[in-house]
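During the no-cost extension, the postdoctoral fellow (Dr. R.K.) reprocessed legacy sequence entries with the updated structure-token encoder. One reprocessed record is reproduced below for audit purposes.
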Amino acid sequence: MQETDILVVGAGAAGASLGYLLKQAGKDVLLLEMLDAKKKNKLCAGIIEHRAEQAFMDIFGKTLAEAGLVTMPMETMIVRHDDYEMSHTMPKKHQAVQGTEQGSVQDENAQGFVASLRNYLQKGGKMAAKMAVKKAAGYEPGVVSYKALPRKHFDDYILNRYLEAGGRLLDHTTVRSIDKERQVACCVNLVTKETFEIKYNTLVGADGATSIVRRLLTGKRQSTTLALEAPVPLTLRETVIYLRPADHGYFWYIPRGNDATVGCVYHKLGCRDSEIRKHFAACCADMGIKIESKIRGALIPDGSDVLLQPAEHCFLIGEAAGLSDNFTGGGIHYALLSAKALADALQGKKTYDEAMKPQLDAVHKNCSNANIYFAAGGKVVEFLGKKKTN
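Re-encoded structure tokens follow.
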């Protein structure tokens, strides 16, 4: 039997960030990864929000540029809905969000926008809807909203920092069963088929939307949606979003330096693969994009099923906890923020629940108000945009 103080299942951005922080605090940490951690490439559009950038600085003490991660600022966004489109220029001035207290203030200020949007839908007011969509998307005037880079570059940096700090990693390994009373995880090496036990003091599930840890501890999977994605040549410098309010989702084209990524997610369609692929193909055809690489699919949380602590001495972070924004699609900042919050909690600072309250409020707000946000987004494009030119 192996032993470790903290066993983390999943060596992605959430798990490796947590491992790094705990190693810095002198803890004994072991990461398990079902795939090959250094070779895997997570499906992700590669958007780094200002909240994610600030969380990265809080964890690693460096900006993305100082860490050698070259990003592409998203300066112009074109949003399309039916036959209309509108162009939005992102704010240039940078104003990073500082800490959870600021996030809490922003969440409180956002409450009035729900009422404004309802008023818009009843009376046709345009400005209230535009302001509300901006708020739901997570930025205000004077704040740099989004940058983009290949997700693998981001994940590799975090994993390497964990390993450089002396962290242990077992690739091709997953958990087969969990004995909560003995605090023992029965694991299996997926290559050799060898089974062995690991005794832990704390178990953390950081293994994504289909978290095995979550399923073993609760007996069920969380609510998810299918996302599709493929890399494509860089043809436009602008970010393009095809909004589908009726399906609570969108198609995206996002430039990220040397190439771009296209993808889509439609929460109301859930995991209906054929219907999602039909919308994906139609949007690619409209943009004149020919997909030459394999279209990848992955399940992502829909934000309706958040769970932070499924059992005593057991926690969930990132997508395993269900932390995702079904309006913006944001997930990277929740991965980093939950890793930081749990690391602080395991060192006797704020409890995990207390530290995550601003983030939980934001997830619940955007999930419960999705109907309003998506409807308003479509109306904003229709009324403030112009007819598309072919």
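The longest helix spans residues 99-123. The longest strand covers residues 195-205. The remaining legacy entries will be reprocessed before the final report is submitted.
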